[in-house]
Amino acid sequence: MGILQIFTLLGALGMFLYGMNLMSSGLQKAAGDRLRGLLSAMTSNPFKGVLTGLGITSVIQSSSATTVMVVSFVNAGLLTLAQAISVIMGANIGTTVTAWLVSWLGFKADISILTVPLMALGFIMSISKKSQRRNISELIVGFSLLFLGLSLMKNSVPDLQQTPEVLSFIQGWQGHGFGSVIIFLLFGTILTLVLQSSSATMALTLIMLNMGWIRFDMACAMVLGENIGTTITANIAAAVGNTSAKRSALAHTVFNVFGVIWALITFPFFLRFIGFITENLFGVPNPASEGFVVEVSKDADGNMLQSDSQTAALYGLSMLHTLFNTINTLILIWLIPVIEKIVCTIIKESKNQENENFRLKYISAGPMATPELASEQALDEIIHFAQISKNGMLYAKDAINENDSDKFETLREKLVKYEEIADRIEHEIAVFLNALSAEEISQSTSVKVKALYKIIGELESLGDSGETISRILSRKNIHNKKFDAETIKKLNNMADYILNAYDVMIENLNAAKNSALSEISNAYNAEDRINSLRNNLRDAEIEDIENGSKNYQTSVYYMDIVNEMERMGDFMINVSQDLERAFK
Predict the structure, then answer these.
(1) If you average pLDDT over each of 14-18, 148-152, 290-294, 496-500, which comes out highest?
(2) pLDDT, tens only, 209-264
(3) Are 337 and 227 members of one domain?
(4) Residues 148, 166: one domain?
(5) How many domains, the chain?
C-alpha cells in the first residue's frame, strides 16, 4: 500500500466526516424550529423521551450531538436525570439510520455518480437570498460529500487479494474463538474513540466487511465496541458540568455497556436471530449461517460487483446495529430508576454547593454539537442572569432602609459580590456566544446572537448600578448624613418602580424564549413611569433645597441614588428593544 493510497484513504475518511458534519449542520438550521418543538415534547413519560431522542437523532444524524445537548439540559435543570436517560436511549436507536443509508445507497447503488450534480444544485441554492434555501444547500452538499467520501474510501482501500500475507495476518486474528470477538470489540471501541464518530467507524466496518477482510461475526463485534466508544463524547461534555450532567453522561455509558454484556453472553444466538430476520425480511442469504462467506468479484474492467453475499452481510450488520439498540431500550426502559440509582451511587452529590450557587445554569462547556439550539441555552442563561440582577436590586433596596451600620456593611458586601457575579456571568456568556458565532449558523440565529451580546452588556451595567448605589450610601454614612422618613419613602417608591421594570423585562425575555413576543408596550410604560417619577422627585427636591428645608449634601446623595435607579430603567428598556428587534 503506497503513501499516496494511504493519504487518499485518510482524505476520503476526512471527506466522509466533513460531509456528515455539514449535512448535520444544514439539517439543524433547516429544521431548527421543528427541533425545538421536539425538545418541548420531553416529558416524564419514558416512551415519549425515547421517541424524542429517536426523532432528534434521526434528523441531525448524530447521537453524540443529541447526548451532548441532553447533558447540557440536565446541567441546566431543564431535564431530570430520568428524562435524560430515556432521551439517550432513543438517540441510540436514531443513530442506526446512518448505517442503513450507507448500506442501501453507498454499496447497493453507486450514488457517487450523482454527487457532483447534487453539488451543482447545492451551489445554485447557496447563492439564493432565502436563508432556508441556503440551509438546504448545505444539507445537499454535505450529503454529496458524505457519499463521495464513502465511494473514495471503498476505491482507495487496498486489494488484499493481491497481498495474501496481509490478508492472512488480519484473518489470523479471527481464529481465536470468543477471544477474537473481544479483540474486534476492543478494536471498534478504540477506533471510535479516535475518530469521535461512531458513524464513521460504522462506515469503515461496512467497507471491511464488504471487501471480505473480516467475517460477519467479527464485524458485529466491532459494532458492539463502537457503541461503547461513542459514549466518550458525552462524558467529555459532562466533565465540566454539574453533578447531574456527569450522571446523565455516565447513564449513557451504563446503558451501552449493559447492552454489550448481554449481547456478548448471547452472541451466537443473537447472531442467528439477526441472520434469520435479515434472510426473511430482505430475501438474501443468511449472513450468520455456518459457512457463510462474503464473495468479492470484479468485472472485466476491475470494478467491484456487488454480490448477494455482500448485500446480505451489509444488511445483516445494519440490522444488528438497529436491533441491538432497540432490544436494549426495550429491556432498560423499565429499569430507568435502577440506572438512576446506580449513577447516583457512583457519582455523589457535590459537598461544596456554595461554589455552584452562581455558576452558569443553562450553558455547559464541551463540544457545541447543536449550534442552532445553543442560542436557546444562551437565552435561558440570560433570563437566569436577569433574575440574579433583580435579587441584587432587592439587596440595594434593603441597604437604603438599613440604619444599623453592621447590617448595612453586610448588604454592601453582597452588592459588591453581585457586581462581581454580573461581570463573571457576562464574560462566560460572551465566551459561549463567541464560540456560537464561530459555528455555521442561520441568518436568523446570527441576528439573535448579536442581540444577546447587547443584552448581557445591559445586564452587567445593572449589576454596576447596584454596586454604585451601595457606594453612594456608604459615602453618606461616612459623612454622618441620614435620610428622613419622607426621603426613605420616596426612594422605596422609586425602587418599587425599578423592581416592576425588572418583572416586565423578565416577562419579555420569557416571551422571546417562547416565540410569543409581539410588542413591548409594557416596557415603554414602565420606563415612562420611572422617568416621570424621577422628574417629580428631582423638582420637589430642588424646591426643598431652595427654601432651605433640606441639607444640600444629603440631597446630593439622595438625587444620585434616584438618578442611578433611573439609569437602571434605561438599561432595562434597552433589553426589551433588543428583544423586539431580534425575536419579534
Answers:
(1) 496-500
(2) 887 888 889 999 999 998 888 787 667 656 656 676 678 778 888 989 999 999 99
(3) yes
(4) no
(5) 3
Per the structure, the complete domain to which residue 462 belongs is given by 371-583
Q: In terms of domains, do 434 and 552 share one?
A: yes
Say if residue 399 is in the same domain as residue 534.
Answer: yes
Which of 342-351, 394-403, 458-467 comes out lowest in average pLDDT? 342-351
Q: Pick the closest to residue 317 from 193, 226, 384, 437 (CA basis).
A: 226
283: left (phi over 0), alpha (psi -120 to 50) or beta: left
**Sign of the CA dihedral 230, 236, 241, 242?**
positive
User: Which H helix or E strand runs over 297?
Assistant: strand 297-298
CA angle, 271 as apex, 270 and 277 as ends, to 5°?
Answer: 90
Q: Which three cell numbers stand for residue 447?
A: 441576528
What was the pLDDT predicted at 352? 45
268 with 197: CB under 8 angstroms?
no
Residue type, 241: G
How confident is the model at residue 355, as a pLDDT? 41
User: What number of residues does the chain have?
Assistant: 584
Contact 248, 88 (CB under 8 A): yes
Q: Rounded to whole angstroms, how far apart are CA atoms 26 and 455? A: 28
Spatial distance between the Cα atoms of 421 and 413, rounded to a whole number of angstroms: 12
CB 190 within 8 A of CB 204: no
Our CA angle for 151, 156, 161, nearest 5°, is 115
Q: Which of 543, 542, 535 is nearest to 556 (CA)?
A: 542
Residue 265: closest CA among 177, 185, 388, 178: 178
Q: Is residue 127 domain-shared with residue 168, that is, in the same domain?
A: no
Q: Please give the single-letter amino acid code of residue 565.
A: M
Mean per-residue pLDDT over the chain, rounded: 80
Using only C-alpha atoms, the chain has a radius of gyration, in whole angstroms, of: 31
Same domain, 309 and 423: no
Instruction: Please list, in sequence order, all residues whose beta carbon lies within 8 angstroms of the beta carbon of residue 559, skipping any fewer than 6 positions away.
Output: 537, 538, 541
